Amino acid sequence: MRARYSIIAAALALPLLVVSLAPAGEPRSTSDLKEAARRAEDEARGRRAPPPRGNAKAFKHRAHGLTIAMIEVPGGTFLMGSPPGDDSEWALDSSFTVTMSGFSMAAHGVTNAQYAAFLTAQGNVCSGYRCVDETTDSLMLKESGGRWTPVSGWEDFPVAEVSWYGANGFAQWVGGQFPTEAQWEYACREGAQQNTWSGTSDETAVHRFANTKGLADGHDGLAAAGALEPNGWGLHDLSGNLYEWTSDWKADYPKGPVTDPTGGPPGEPRIIRNGSFVDSTNASRCATRWDRRSEETGYFMGFRIVLVKR
Ligand SMILES: [Ca+2]
Ligand SMILES: [Ca+2]
Questions:
Q1: What is the CATH number of the domain that holds 229?
Q2: What's the gap in Å between 302 CA and the centre of ligand 2?
Q3: Separation between Cα atoms, residue 232 and residue 209, nearest integer Å
Q4: Most exposed of 76, 122, 223, 274 (fewest Cβ within 10 Å)?
Q5: pLDDT digits over 165-205, tens only?
Q6: How far apart are CA 178 and CA 247, in angstroms?
Q7: Count of domains for the chain
């Protein structure tokens, strides 16, 4: 199993490497940026998220003048991973029963505006590493005299080009933490509902919930945080838009039932979850699993926070 997993991991790494070398395909000119901002505002105005279903509850978490939309999700039991016989491109051919305690997860990824406040407060060094890659055009944040601001029009887009250390720094600053890999997949699947993608198991409906490669979802590049429909628990953008860091070190999946798993023993790399705006719908399934070293960054990688206790 371990040998097979390594082969799969190597196969997964190659397309990501190609992706990381390719141009971002995001709007770059001033007029494109203004158009993107207009679209984001229209989307925000037109958005009427339904209340979360079941026992999920929406609330606001406030810290350092920031307001973070959160969803409290109930505990429960679900099947994690890909069942044997799954012949899709990224299948891991391993699934197991997981029992989860309840937790609260941010409704969408941390935005450029929120992350700029963090960088202004403490600078671009997180645990001795850079929090964000300030050398790339894909970072929609600018620094002047120690003050960080989003590029105009990008305030409400999720922050990308952030390392695990940078994501962890923000999470701790606001009194939160990362999702574990199991929390992430549990939230994506809506627990026992076992959705294949966040919000649906119907491939023809994925474009309503996930910004993946292509225009079927209405977005060519990155979408503003929360621009697409939320899943039934009120969580946006789990499938697609940006990959998301988790707290877990990479390890083979357990063979039997587990409760609140937290990943492997310390050792790089970390697990990141799901597809992005340059990935296929297949790669954006709730089961899809990738990894990156903690200091790495990319224009397709962001994060969201969880709170274990309200
Ligand atoms: Ca798209
Ligand atoms: Ca995502």
A1: 3.90.1580.10
A2: 8
A3: 11
A4: 122
A5: 999 999 999 999 999 999 999 999 999 999 999 999 999 99
A6: 5
A7: 1
